[in-house]
User: Which sequence fits this backbone?
């Protein structure tokens, strides 16, 4: 299987989040989680002046564009290209061109591998996010997405939850 790379998709202006949601739904429905790894609408913090007060808001870095971390093949190309709101991949003709390391640096997207000190079956504690201070057992580790799936107790039942490596600590 070939390696996942970052690609840029052009969308109708204002449809970026809708396209992101549609692609994520298609990934789930067609079980393409191992081929289309991540869909992003890059945002940046901007200070806006309204009525004399400074307000911090998030604006899209590239209006009309969505970033995809995916393995390019006929299936993934077809799924993304035929998503409602997508006008095409960025690249000459119908051939998508992946982003280079230099192009990805200002976007804050790092392609580094994190070394983890836990394995499946280990008990871990969540150090940040919505599940902060929750403990659970590691059931799966996804190095490509840099997430770990843990089982947490929710309403008396074991429930699998995906948490970023950065928010996990071994007990």
Assistant:
């Amino acid at each position: 299987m070939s390696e996942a790379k970052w690609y840029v998709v052009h969308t109708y202006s204002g449809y970026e989040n809708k396209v992101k949601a549609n692609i994520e739904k298609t990934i789930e429905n067609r079980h393409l989680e191992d081929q289309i790894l991540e869909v992003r609408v890059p945002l940046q913090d901007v200070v806006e002046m309204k009525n004399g007060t400074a307000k911090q808001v998030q604006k899209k870095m590239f209006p009309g564009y969505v970033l995809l971390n995916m393995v390019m093949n006929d299936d993934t190309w077809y799924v993304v290209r035929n998503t409602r709101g997508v006008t095409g991949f960025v690249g000459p003709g119908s051939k998508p061109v992946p982003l280079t390391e230099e192009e990805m640096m200002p976007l804050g997207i790092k392609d580094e591998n994190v070394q983890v000190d836990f394995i499946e079956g280990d008990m871990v504690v969540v150090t940040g996010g919505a599940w902060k201070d929750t403990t659970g057992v590691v059931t799966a580790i996804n190095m490509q997405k840099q997430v770990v799936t843990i089982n947490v107790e929710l309403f008396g039942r074991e429930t699998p939850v995906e948490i970023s490596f950065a928010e996990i600590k071994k007990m």
